[in-house]
Amino acid sequence: xxxxxxxxxxxxxxxxxxxxxxxxxxxxxxxxxxxxxxxxxxxxxxxxxxxxxxxxxxxxxxxxxxxxxxxxxxxxxxxxxxxxxxxxxxxxxxxxxxxxxxxxxxxxxxxxxxxxxxxxxxxxxxxxxxxxxxxxxxxxxxxxxxxxxxxxxxxxxxxxxxxxxxxxxxxxxxxxxxxxxxxxxxxxxxxxxxxxxxxxxxxxxxxxxxxxxxxxxxxxxxxxxxxxxxxxxxxxxxxxxxxxxxxxxxxxxxxxxxxxxxxxxxxxxxxxxxxxxxxxxxxxxxxxxxxxxxxxxxxxxxxxxxxx
Length: 308
Description:
With 308 residues, the chain is of the alpha/beta class. It has one domain (3-307): TIM Barrel (Alpha-Beta Barrel). The chain is 47% helix and 12% strand. The protein has helices at residues 3-11, 34-48, 84-100, 113-121, 124-133, 136-159, 178-199, 236-243, 256-259, 262-276, 295-307, and strands spanning 21-22, 53-55, 106-111, 163-168, 204-207, 224-227, 246-251, 281-285. The protein has an eight-stranded parallel beta sheet. Strand 4 (163-168), helix 7 (178-199) and strand 5 (204-207) form a beta-alpha-beta unit. Helix 2 crosses helix 3 (84-100) and helix 10 packs parallel to helix 11. 44% of the residues are buried. The model has no long low-confidence stretch (mean pLDDT 95).
């Protein structure tokens, strides 16, 4: 099987010859965009032998005004496809699609509306306060963010992206009560998810953070789901039972693969595969690897998966 054939078989619930796998790390600031950025990501993809091309980005909406109070959100007008930072990311996508030439499935990293709001305030204390305020101005901004994320996704799909790696935040038990999570985080997560599922049936949902309210994610429809098994005390097997869908992960992203040896990484990889099997699993990290994760460790993980 080619990598693409393997992933298509995986999503179609057909047998795979070897275990699918994918890990990723942020690229250096000076190689983030343009042709240099595309080549840096493609170089990582090819060296790691990832089973699909997961484009790692940090595309958040750019604002040139402070968001100190909920009322400040009135200045956010929504998505502008001509905005420079969006166009820079769109250019990166086009360059990567050109380099990929249809060889592997391509995933874009898409962030949830509340996750965008968190990044835009640049301060957890501020975005938490805005959420607790229940101010209509902040709620209206989340509606605009939902629309903006959907419009982003629409463009990326039209360019040729096969699926979204849809990354959430805001579900930590120590951040909000259930009613706040459902009103300001979950409903907008689901609004975007409902749309992207009309464009692709192979989207992956990522729950970012420790100590998450895991049961609240049961109705997030996606082809595969990824979470921090170590920070949430929920194993891959338990997650498969809870969510009833394919899973991604298994490795501590800051463990052996980032800070150990190739031998330790291979041992951890094999242990995950021995306990779970290669069907219904994309072996990967709990989250993004450390930027300094040795490529020799990543290759050791890939070798185990590609021969299992």
